[in-house]
Amino acid sequence: MINTLKNLISSLEYSYSLTLDMNFLTTTVTKYENLIDEENTSSLEELMYIHYLIALCDDNLRNNDKSLHHFNLCLYYSIITNNETYIGKCYLYASKLYFILSDLDEYVYCFNKAEKIFTSNNNYCDLSKLYIYTILHNLRLGICTSKVFGFIAKTLNLLTLYENEFSAQTYMILGSVYAIYLKDNYYAIELYKKALFLANKYNLVTLKIMINYFIATGYIDLNRNNEGCKILENLLSDTVAVPPITMKCVFTLELLNLYITTESNIDYIGKGIDFIQENLILLPQLDRLQFISQLLIIKCRLGLLLNNQSIDTLLNWITKSNEIYTVYKTSYRFSHADYTINCLFGDIYYEFEDYLNALEYHKLALEFSSMYESKYVIYAHQKIAKDYAALNNYKEAFINMEKVDKIRSTIQHVNLLDNYTKVYKEYEDFKENEETKNQFFANLSHELKTPINIIYSSIQLLNMFKDTNDDKFKGYYGKHEKSVTHNCLRILKLIDNLIDTTKIDSGSFNLTFVNYDIVKLIEDITLSTLPYIEIKKLNIIFDTEIEQLEIKCDPYAIERIMLNLLSNAIKFTNNGGNINVIISLKDTNVCIKVNDDGIGIPPSMRDQIFDKFIQVDNALNRKKEGSGIGLSLVKSIVELHNGRVYLNSTRMRGSEFIILLPNVKSMEPYDKIICNTYVPNTSKISAEFSDIYELN
Question: Is the pLDDT confidence value at 658 over 60?
Answer without folding.
Answer: yes
